[in-house]
Amino acid sequence: MQQTSQNKMATASPCKLIWQMGLPMIVSMILQAVYNIVDTAFVINMGANGIAGNLALTYAFPVQLLIIAIGVGTGVGLNALLSKSLGEGNRTKANKAVGNGIFLALCIYAVFLLFGLFGAHAFIAMQAGDDILVVQMGTQYLTICCCCSFGAIGFTVYERFLQSTGKTLYSTIAQISGAAANIVLDYVFIFPLGMGIAGAAWATVIGQVISLVVAMLFHYCANRELGNSFKNIAPNFGIIKEIYRIGLSAALMQGMLSVMMLGVNLILATVKQHAELVRGSFGVYYKIMQFALFACFGLSNTIISVASFNYGTGNLPRARQCVKWGEINTIVVSAAITVLFEVFARPLASLFGMASGVNGVEITQTVAAAIRIASIGYVFMGVSIATQGVLQALGYALYPLFISCLRLAVFVFPAVGLLSLLPDAATAVWWAFPIAEALTAAVSVVILVGVVRRKLGTSRLPQGNCKANKKVSD
């Protein structure tokens, strides 16, 4: 108990703690979106093939989301297990979790390496049909991203090693390093060197590798709370089972983003007018929307770390405060992003509207409309994602997955399908997203109240403020 009492996750004010740990994590998560956004901005503006390049990136994006999904899902389970083990004072178990996290990252990379070598062409062709240029560009981009995905996958694991011990600033520095390199290399590879869409892919994977290397240096040099031994890399199926007891649902939840992206692409292909424009604009919009999505995920991951730690120590009143301030702070962040997107929708869309001729103007108009309409649902999205973090922290796997299925498939696909039939489908279809978010948030609140009552001993979230709470003895 002495060790626990000295840990800031056990003693600091829950509200301040969530901001202190959450802000670096928000920055870290948002920077994950930078890779794809920067690629898209440079590719769409690279000249005559910019529009085809944007479609190629749009068709490749579901697999990129899947890489992130499996890596992040594994990391979430690893983070929860590490935080809980450290909260219980079980260093041996925590050290075994570190080794098995590395083992799992190697296995995941092997899967995507094989997909990149043998499955990339078929995946792009399934969506692009007989558009030979788009198929060629998409296959080239996706093959490079998959075959060199060890940087992205490895970083998600080492990032969680740092986050589980409260060193979120280090993980943010690692993420910034890779993102900065990606921006510089994107310009150099695409324009001065004329490497086209392959240059965008190489800039992305090199940036991811840089982030991984920096995170590894921080972990091995500064993360004294966790031990590192080669013998722990040997698979321990008990540890792996515990990681995926939470992590599997997190991976499936993140993977639903890939399913949603692919499903909406296929539905939008049926739009009678401007199908290519709407699909291309959807790819651009969804990458911009990741700023809000990943910001919410950053706070959700903070909730997992802080709430699971205090739940592991048996400090239920403090765990309830973590739940309360996690939900409130996520709503604040998502609301702030909504305001920013409403104000700066046109400038954001213009970053992707420098393509030649009328196409650039149409893309700018369509993306701006998408941002203004869809961002109305971000506050509701924040409620749902924060609730998923709470549920994961308290050991639930199916509830978070159920919420993801609602917001990314059950409510979205019918809404997109129906709205795409309207005469003004290029504008109307974007209303599907706030509608789906609002319906999902309503269901999430009902689930949250019931879980808090059962697990934390109260039927409602406790009252309080940001002042440090008195420590409750065991």
Note down, in words, how this protein is organized:
- With 474 residues, this protein is an all-alpha fold.
- The protein has one domain.
- It is built from 20 helices and no strands.
- Helix 5 runs antiparallel to helix 7 and helix 12 runs parallel beside helix 15.
- The relative contact order is 0.14.
- The N terminus and C terminus are likely disordered.
pLDDT below 50 for ≥5 consecutive residues: which ranges?
A: 1-6, 459-474
Proportion in β-strands: under 5%
What oligomeric state best describes the polypeptide chains here? single chain
Alpha-beta content class: mainly alpha
Query: What is the overall pLDDT average?
Result: 83
Whole-angstrom Rg: 22 Å
Tell me the number of helical segments per DSSP (H or I, 4 or more residues long).
20
Overall structural domain count: 1
Number of strands: 0
SSE series:
HHHHHHHHHHHHHHHHHHHH
Question: Could you give the distance between the termini?
Answer: 9 Å
What best-fitting shape do the alpha-carbon axes yield? globular
Q: Which percent bin holds the helix content?
A: over 70%
Largest sheet: none
